[in-house]
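Troubleshooting log. The previous structure file for this entry was overwritten by mistake, so regenerating from the original sequence record. Sequence copied from the archived sheet and checked twice against the printout by T.R.
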Amino acid sequence: MTAEPTAARTAAPAASAPSFRPAGARDVPAVVALVESAYRGEASRAGWTTEADLLDGQRTDEAAVAELLGRAESVVLLAEQDGRLLACCHVERRGATGYFGMFSVSPAAQGGGLGRRVLARAEEWARDAWGVAAMEMTVIEQRADLIAWYERRGYARTGVYEPFPYGDERFGIPLRPDLRFEKLLKSL
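Regenerated output below.
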């Protein structure tokens, strides 16, 4: 993978391109820390993926990430650069469709194209490893900016909604009463 072009050239050496690998059990604490930093609390406000205005509490925990690693036809992909974890996502086969979730990019690394690379790698994984012809995901409906980002990458809104799991603090503490998820879908 080649580095993406930059707007301005500097004398500093170019950073190496991110490398991708499946997560293992030893990666669980770092994955949890990354996910939390991208979505919750004041630190998440440094990036544009924050959910801090919609949800408080945790986004995930070690037990939930370990459970994803233990599922058949499920992988947590990591994007690392120069030994640092910068992004992750969960990809899972669900019948004839792949599922994309737990997508997190470090707030300090957002806005530079890494998210597009991670999404493309996840789609490639689902297509190559499982032969699926489509990828789906659920996004909080109120995240219009995020839904628009996915639409620019070929995902379509389906009009299919799932309720937010109110009362289950494993998914966060809602700060408003009208949250729900919308399913997005893309042919691969």
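Residues 1-14 have pLDDT under 50 and may be disordered. Archived copy saved in two places this time.
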